[in-house]
Design a protein that fits this description.
This protein is mainly beta. Helix content is 4%, strand content 38%. The strands form two sheets. A five-stranded antiparallel β-sheet has the order 3-6-5-4-7. The protein is elongated, with a radius of gyration of 18 Å. The relative contact order is 0.24.
Length: 110
């Protein structure tokens, strides 16, 4: 029996191996998936004319079960040629873990 220690904090979301399964040291296959719930990222795909009005560091609000304050972390400088959209990432502080990961939300920016 060996202990495995993660270099990051988080909780185990999914285990990808069975108990007593032999794991080779050089394998690149993941043993488990960890999630960090204290800081969440929401990803949006916006039309270019809307994304052009956004800036990194700009305040944003995610609306789901209630307003959730966040900050725009990244506005992709490229337009996806297939969807004609721009990827935007918003970071939300979730230290109390009140927001559940995987929820659908809308984006509001003033």
């Amino acid at each position: 029996t060996k202990n495995i220690k993660s270099p990051v904090n988080g909780i185990v979301y999914r285990i990808h191996v069975d108990e007593s399964e032999l794991i080779e040291g050089h394998s690149k296959a993941p043993l488990m998936t960890l999630v960090q719930l204290d800081r969440l990222k929401a990803v949006f795909y916006l039309p270019p004319h809307l994304a052009a009005k956004l800036e990194n560091g700009q305040a944003a609000t995610l609306n789901g079960e209630g307003p959730i304050p966040g900050v725009i972390e990244f506005v992709d400088p490229m337009v996806d040629p297939e969807s004609n959209t721009v990827r935007v990432k918003v970071i939300v502080d979730n230290k109390n873990e009140t927001v559940k990961s995987g929820r659908k939300v809308t984006l509001e920016v003033k």
